[in-house]
Task: structure prediction
Amino acid sequence: MGLNYYQIKKNILKSRKLVIRSTNLAGSGHPGGSFSMAEILGCLFYNHLRYDPKNPQWDERDRLVLSKGHASPGLFSNMAVAGYFPETELDTLRKFGSKLQGHPDLKCPGVEFCGGSLGTGLSYSIGIALSAKIDSKNFHVYTIIGDGESDEGQIWEAAMTASKYKVDNLTVFLDRNFIQQDSYTEKIMPLDKKLDSENLSEMWKDASRWKTGDKWRSFGWNVLEIDGHRIEQIDAAIRKANNTKGVPTIIISRTIKGKSVEHMEDNPAWHGKAPDTDIVPIIFDELNSQFMISPSIIAGDMSNLENEIKRCVNGRADYIHLDVMDGQFVPNKTFDFNKIKELRPLTIIPFDTHLMINEPQKYLQNYIDAGSDMITVHAEVTNASSFGEIHDTLKQNQIGVGFAINPDTELPEWFIPFIPSIDQLIVMSVVPGKSGQQYIESTHEKMSRLNVILEQNNFSGYIEADGGVNLQNIGSIFNDGARAFVGGGAIIGQDDVRAAIRDFRNEILISRRGALLDKAHKLGGQDLVKKWINLHVIGEKQKEIQKIAMERGYL
Amino acid sequence: MNEPVFTDMRSEYSKSLIRIGHENPNVVVLGADTTDSLKTSGFGKEFPNRFFNVGIAEANLVTISAGLAISGKIPFASTYAIFLPGRAVDQIRNNIAYPSPNGNKGLNVKLVVSHGGLSVGPDGGSHQQIEDIAIMRVIPNFHVFIPSDTVSVSKLTDLMASNYGPYYMRMARSATPLVHETSQEFKEGQGITLRDGNDCTIVSCGITVRMALEAAEQLQNEGISCRVIDMFSIKPIDNEILEKAARETGCIVTTEEHNIIGGLGSAVAESVSESYAVPVKRIGAQDMFGESARDNEIPLLLEKHGITSFNIVKQVKDIRGKKI
Result:
């Protein structure tokens, strides 16, 4: 299939919304475990799996076995997005006569395994993989198992067997979300180490506790350990797994149950419960409000950009923003594709390449070859014809398509037809050319004008705010509709990049929580506000949201 | 009756597997550390890349077979009866019987076990599976066969390989007397009338078929004519032959080395009670577990549960007096 990073992200968002919608309509189901594996399924469905939705029994297709079958809404949603059946069919989930059963079932063409009774999908996958070996077929088997599911002895019977028979055409994902039906895994049946303390965050934050990888290694597996919500990490792990011969691979993916919906995150209650109807629209807003931080390394030490990359990695940046300036389109000169090529091996974090150069179409291929994940070109130096060419080339190369406008540039008329398929729109809030400038306040007003045009023209990409973004204004920029944030001086200029990024995220979170409270209040007054707040039972969230609600006069 | 000729079911199964392995490249065989005992290792020597020994892991055995079957293979998975239905019923149900691809009923897996019933002998009650017929026939989509001799084993192995669907076949541990001519045809869902008679019908399976024939012979000497049916196909069961027997002989005695609850006797009673109700007497394990018995003591163990030709004779005489 092969979609770019942004398209994968958008499809993951779509499928998350379908999970919420379908479990709500069904009145039951398992959103928590569907969300913890959402990025894994997204990377598989939209970048790696070979399949044909019109011919689900295609002999050469890769096989996807969802062993943790209760997360079927996640599987079905992705199948709908991938085109196996219309999205509206998800409205029949768990209903009488539906092919979308409570657990994955062969009744639905394209589903490979009848899941539900846990612990069996790995053995089943081994059977498929062995069959492929007997017949010298090249398809690959991908299997998703759960951590609660790993209590089942059969998982370990299968682990030994896969190792014995060198089943290297099998890759397993362990959706390590630390939660099973009754409670947290490390309390019910530890995979790492029994958790005695009440401080749950130790489970997923204290790496010295993690023993699951050792278990699998001792069973003879190739073990990769990743953050299971980071697309680039999943992607890289799949590639490594596919290149590993002679042993099976397991990708231990640390995830968050209920990921992307704050009140579901890390809360065992959302293992198997559907959201209420009055809550659904608020959840949709929350899902639409996922955000990314993209530090701009030119705000750092230009003589040691390698080190700036490392600081971004340590800071857990979502992207790395690379400002390419040619000294013509803008007065300054930074670096070109050669530098990007040098930096590329240092990290797998997506490169968000921002071309502030004349005639970008001329150099585009160089920037693609250098390893950019998304490339943004400027309105001021493109036209319908050159941008059309750039757009098509980028899509064909699985690169995100970005378009940028300067503070005194409006969206050109010719650009309107491109709006639905664009991945990123950068609305510059400083005059490009050098870092350290002040945010231009009129950008807020410009954003509200732009939002109307974008909505009218089915924009489904991300707006990236670039220029003068700091802790003081980031909340209001988020409210304007930006979902990606370039941080120059306010992030890279700081001593502690990690803390700066964390502070950015916190500020956005406060803003987002406020917006969701506004939504709740608008839809159901104080009652719904209270209901929304009371859903947030894990950690300090409830107190923090309560405070915001009080400030807004909702309580 | 002729002196019995004893032959070994497992050896016959092994021969049959190799034969069909040559005929059909999709046939694969799986074992769980009992492949020498089940004699499936012979297939492994002939077809090393189509043979998998998964160790003492029966759940895994069953589910790997399911994965092979969904990919077009015809897996024969074998171990002792006590470790398949007795241990892995969830995998049998959810991984083999339930998944129904492309309008088929269940997956194309053949579970063939040895060491069924009480005649397992010295290993004791822990290893004497007297519940498997009940367990397997209650699972939708499964077919259940209990062969009475090596001719049956050979023919039924062929039949399972050529018919799509999930099958369970239970063999006995010990060598068993030949019952059938090699020319005997076996059709799924059709019992075989081995002896005709009008006064009573004995419906049997497995090692008790020979006992039934011996009992019928003795009864004949006393002027009682018994019909004897080898009901090797317990599911689907032959409703037609049973109704006919009920109408024509008026009473039925069933024999099996399985608990009288849920086994062949139950299946026969269920059938005739819906077609032509007549008295049915079930001979089998008396809802009690078995126990150790050395090979030469197995008849004593069977006798404890009334599984003897002597008791069959007794029960036939008794039930004739209860005809409606």
Chain A touches chain B through 31 residues (CB under 8 Å).
